[in-house]
Amino acid sequence: MPARSKESLIPPVDRTPPLRRLRRVAGDAGLRTLLGPGLARHPSERPSIYLVAPSGHPNYGDELILRGWLRHLERVQPDADVVVDCHTPGQAAVLHGREHPRVTFVDTLWRICAESEHLDEAEAADFAHRVIHDPGILCRIVSGIEMLARADVIHLVGGGYVNAVWPHHLALLAAASAAVERSGGSLVATGQGLTPVGGGRRLELLRRYVERFDVFDVRDTPSWEVIGDCAGVSLTGDDAWLAIRDDGIYDTDSEASRRKYVFCLQIDLMDGFDGGRGVDGLTSAVSDIVDRWGIDGTDTAFVEGIPGADRVVYDRVVDLLPGAEFVPFTDVWWRGLPARRDQVWVSTRFHPHLVAAAAGARGIALSAGGDYYPVKHRSLVEAGSHWAVAETSTLPDAPADGGFGHETVARLRGEKTALAGRIYPDVPFPVRHVRSARRRFAARSASR
């Protein structure tokens, strides 16, 4: 399906100095009126980029996406002030604190969400909007709200966190849109997975807020089908494609990287697997794979995407696989995913599927029922992964085909990189003030 997007309010091509562009429209007197004489003479404020991410839990996929965007900004906007707003900022700072020279970690938007979690979606969205315009309502985070309301760009980075699984996260969209009402900045979202969407009032609210974004990019067809007719919407796949060729994505030197069979098996969000058997059904599926494929523990590794949650099934089946290697999240994060072309993977998690398949590994994705994980895994199959997707403990034979082809990986990475280029061209000036002034001048002209 072709992508459709509205250009960012940050000019992607015109390199004319911003004050000169305003002067062409408003003249010298108008420029002084709009910007004030001090800023008109000394436009020295750093650009402020505000990233929103479900980071710090930690979760391999969410961290991979955030790291990719921080590295991209380090390349194209090294002098910008970058703020990461996430639910666990302390741990996120440990994982990402060196990825950009001017990065700060806060939890402002996520605290607003937590304060409104007990409300229905419409009330939560209204509360989030009011808090941004009247920060004293949450007086302990006034400073954080003011930082948010000064951002040039507010960017909800990719992931599957704005959907009916976590309905209160709709308040993220409401608060972010209120913040750009104050700042005049750009509002963008990339690589979003919106399913399960929910219906009725929630769907109406979602579409209303999407219309307020300058760019709203999704990662799968079902999400596109819900909002694809809204202005500014595009479909370029998961945000992890931006980072797929970054340093440290793959581990090629460890013992785990030499193993032929690799498993990544979670217990969170897997209750619907095998008709509701959950972790018991998952354990049965893995036991059956070990038996039917004749897997030996000395040629097997297990990797952890979320610490603790991805060790439970391993502990249940390890007696069947003496000599199996277990790779904790910390090793996966700091050394890379131990994936290579001639491996066979079995993964419940989406991003190990994406990254291992991008290396050419063949595999099976085990998915719980419903509209969350199946949509994610099938989006990769639609994009070119040759992995099988199974939702029960009755599994297919070991797949014969590999993952993504080289050309497909290059195309998917190129589309995401092009989107990043539209959002963050190399524009070293205070775009917020220029954009706000442009809008005020247009409003004044229209009222005459």
From TrEMBL:
Cited InterPro entries: Polysacch_pyruvyl_Trfase (IPR007345)
Domain Polysaccharide pyruvyl transferase: 59-243
TM regions (residue ranges): none
Keywords, sorted A to Z: Transferase
One GO MF term: transferase activity
Protein name: Polysaccharide pyruvyl transferase family protein WcaK
Higher taxonomy: Bacteria, Bacillati, Actinomycetota, Actinomycetes, Mycobacteriales
